[in-house]
Amino acid sequence: MARSNILDRFRPAGAPGPAGPVGVPAFGEQGPAAELAPVFEALAADVEACQTMVNQARQEADSALSGAREQAVAIMAQARLDEGGERARAAARVERAASARDDLLLARAREDADDLERTRTALLPGTVRKVMDRLWSEQLTPQPKRP
Question: Any idea what the Cα angle at residue 50 is, between residues 47 and 53, rounded to 5°?
Protein backbone atom coordinates (compact mmCIF):
# COMPACT_ATOMS: atom_id res chain seq x y z
CA MET A 1 0.00 0.00 0.00
CA ALA A 2 1.20 3.47 -0.76
CA ARG A 3 2.06 5.90 1.93
CA SER A 4 -1.12 7.42 3.34
CA ASN A 5 -1.81 11.11 3.21
CA ILE A 6 -4.13 13.02 5.51
CA LEU A 7 -6.27 13.85 2.52
CA ASP A 8 -6.65 10.15 1.70
CA ARG A 9 -8.94 9.79 4.69
CA PHE A 10 -11.78 11.45 2.88
CA ARG A 11 -13.64 10.16 -0.14
CA PRO A 12 -13.69 12.57 -2.95
CA ALA A 13 -16.90 14.46 -3.47
CA GLY A 14 -18.99 12.48 -5.84
CA ALA A 15 -20.20 13.50 -9.24
CA PRO A 16 -23.86 13.86 -9.92
CA GLY A 17 -25.62 10.66 -9.28
CA PRO A 18 -27.21 8.75 -6.47
CA ALA A 19 -26.95 10.29 -3.00
CA GLY A 20 -24.09 8.99 -0.89
CA PRO A 21 -21.78 10.05 1.86
CA VAL A 22 -19.39 12.77 0.84
CA GLY A 23 -16.27 13.67 2.82
CA VAL A 24 -16.64 10.72 5.20
CA PRO A 25 -13.52 8.96 6.46
CA ALA A 26 -12.55 6.15 4.13
CA PHE A 27 -10.35 4.27 6.63
CA GLY A 28 -12.48 3.54 9.66
CA GLU A 29 -10.04 1.21 11.39
CA GLN A 30 -6.84 3.29 11.06
CA GLY A 31 -8.10 6.82 11.70
CA PRO A 32 -6.13 9.70 13.21
CA ALA A 33 -4.23 7.48 15.65
CA ALA A 34 -2.39 5.79 12.80
CA GLU A 35 -1.59 9.13 11.19
CA LEU A 36 -0.35 10.73 14.43
CA ALA A 37 1.64 7.76 15.74
CA PRO A 38 4.84 8.75 13.89
CA VAL A 39 4.53 12.33 15.18
CA PHE A 40 4.20 11.17 18.78
CA GLU A 41 7.07 8.71 18.32
CA ALA A 42 9.25 11.57 17.05
CA LEU A 43 8.25 13.71 20.05
CA ALA A 44 8.80 10.96 22.65
CA ALA A 45 12.46 11.90 23.22
CA ASP A 46 11.52 15.59 23.64
CA VAL A 47 8.69 14.72 26.04
CA GLU A 48 11.08 12.61 28.09
CA ALA A 49 13.69 15.41 28.10
CA CYS A 50 11.02 17.88 29.21
CA GLN A 51 9.91 15.55 31.99
CA THR A 52 13.53 15.23 33.13
CA MET A 53 13.88 19.03 33.14
CA VAL A 54 10.64 19.39 35.13
CA ASN A 55 11.85 16.84 37.69
CA GLN A 56 15.21 18.62 38.01
CA ALA A 57 13.44 21.96 38.41
CA ARG A 58 11.22 20.48 41.13
CA GLN A 59 14.28 19.13 42.96
CA GLU A 60 16.02 22.51 42.70
CA ALA A 61 12.88 24.28 43.90
CA ASP A 62 12.56 21.89 46.85
CA SER A 63 16.23 22.42 47.68
CA ALA A 64 15.88 26.21 47.46
CA LEU A 65 12.71 26.09 49.58
CA SER A 66 14.45 23.94 52.17
CA GLY A 67 17.39 26.37 52.28
CA ALA A 68 15.04 29.32 52.59
CA ARG A 69 13.19 27.63 55.45
CA GLU A 70 16.47 26.95 57.26
CA GLN A 71 17.52 30.55 56.74
CA ALA A 72 14.17 31.79 58.04
CA VAL A 73 14.51 29.62 61.14
CA ALA A 74 18.02 31.01 61.73
CA ILE A 75 16.81 34.59 61.27
CA MET A 76 13.93 34.03 63.71
CA ALA A 77 16.27 32.48 66.28
CA GLN A 78 18.64 35.43 66.01
CA ALA A 79 15.72 37.85 66.27
CA ARG A 80 14.55 36.15 69.45
CA LEU A 81 18.06 36.46 70.87
CA ASP A 82 18.24 40.15 69.92
CA GLU A 83 14.75 40.92 71.20
CA GLY A 84 15.71 41.36 74.87
CA GLY A 85 18.55 43.77 74.11
CA GLU A 86 16.43 45.80 71.72
CA ARG A 87 13.62 46.04 74.26
CA ALA A 88 16.07 47.26 76.90
CA ARG A 89 17.54 49.85 74.53
CA ALA A 90 14.07 51.05 73.54
CA ALA A 91 13.04 51.31 77.19
CA ALA A 92 16.19 53.31 77.96
CA ARG A 93 15.45 55.69 75.07
CA VAL A 94 11.88 56.20 76.29
CA GLU A 95 13.10 56.73 79.84
CA ARG A 96 15.70 59.31 78.74
CA ALA A 97 13.09 61.17 76.69
CA ALA A 98 10.64 61.18 79.63
CA SER A 99 13.38 62.35 82.00
CA ALA A 100 14.31 65.18 79.64
CA ARG A 101 10.64 66.23 79.43
CA ASP A 102 10.34 66.07 83.22
CA ASP A 103 13.50 68.17 83.65
CA LEU A 104 12.15 70.77 81.23
CA LEU A 105 8.79 70.84 82.99
CA LEU A 106 10.48 71.22 86.39
CA ALA A 107 12.66 74.08 85.10
CA ARG A 108 9.57 75.87 83.79
CA ALA A 109 7.78 75.36 87.10
CA ARG A 110 10.78 76.80 88.98
CA GLU A 111 10.82 79.83 86.68
CA ASP A 112 7.09 80.35 87.26
CA ALA A 113 7.57 80.03 91.04
CA ASP A 114 10.47 82.53 90.94
CA ASP A 115 8.33 84.95 88.93
CA LEU A 116 5.53 84.66 91.48
CA GLU A 117 8.00 85.19 94.33
CA ARG A 118 9.41 88.31 92.67
CA THR A 119 5.91 89.64 92.05
CA ARG A 120 4.87 88.92 95.63
CA THR A 121 7.99 90.55 96.99
CA ALA A 122 7.45 93.60 94.82
CA LEU A 123 3.81 93.93 95.92
CA LEU A 124 4.46 93.26 99.62
CA PRO A 125 5.50 96.78 100.72
CA GLY A 126 2.49 98.37 99.04
CA THR A 127 0.12 95.80 100.54
CA VAL A 128 1.64 96.23 104.00
CA ARG A 129 1.28 99.98 103.68
CA LYS A 130 -2.42 99.62 102.74
CA VAL A 131 -3.11 97.28 105.64
CA MET A 132 -1.29 99.55 108.07
CA ASP A 133 -3.10 102.63 106.79
CA ARG A 134 -6.45 100.93 107.21
CA LEU A 135 -5.60 99.78 110.73
CA TRP A 136 -4.39 103.27 111.70
CA SER A 137 -7.40 104.92 110.19
CA GLU A 138 -9.74 102.61 112.12
CA GLN A 139 -7.83 103.31 115.30
CA LEU A 140 -7.78 107.04 114.81
CA THR A 141 -11.40 107.50 113.82
CA PRO A 142 -13.81 107.68 116.76
CA GLN A 143 -16.08 104.65 117.12
CA PRO A 144 -19.75 105.18 117.89
CA LYS A 145 -20.73 104.06 121.34
CA ARG A 146 -22.91 101.11 121.73
CA PRO A 147 -26.03 101.32 123.82
Answer: 155
Q: Residues 25, 9: contact at Cβ < 8 Å?
A: yes
Task: Answer for the pair 29, 38: CB distance below 8 angstroms, yes or no.
Answer: no
Residues of the chain under the 70 pLDDT cut: 1-31, 142, 146-147
Please tell me the number of Cα atoms within 13 Å of 92 on its side-chain side.
6
Read off the amino acid at residue 76: M
> What pLDDT score was predicted for residue 2?
55
**Residue 89's pLDDT is what?**
93
Q: What percent of the chain clears pLDDT 90, i.e. is strictly above it?
A: 47
Q: Other CB atoms closer than 10 Å to residue 10's CB: what's the count?
A: 13
Q: What is the rounded CA–CA span in Å between residue 100 and residue 106?
A: 10
Count of beta carbons in the 10 Å neighbourhood of residue 118: 10
- Listed in sequence order, the residues at least 6 apart from 8 whose beta carbon sits closer than 8 Å to its beta carbon are 26, 27
Residue ranges in the chain assigned as alpha helix (H)? 31-140
Q: Are 23 and 11 in contact (CB under 8 A)?
A: yes
Contacting residues for 31 by C-beta, under 8 A, at least 6 apart = 9, 25
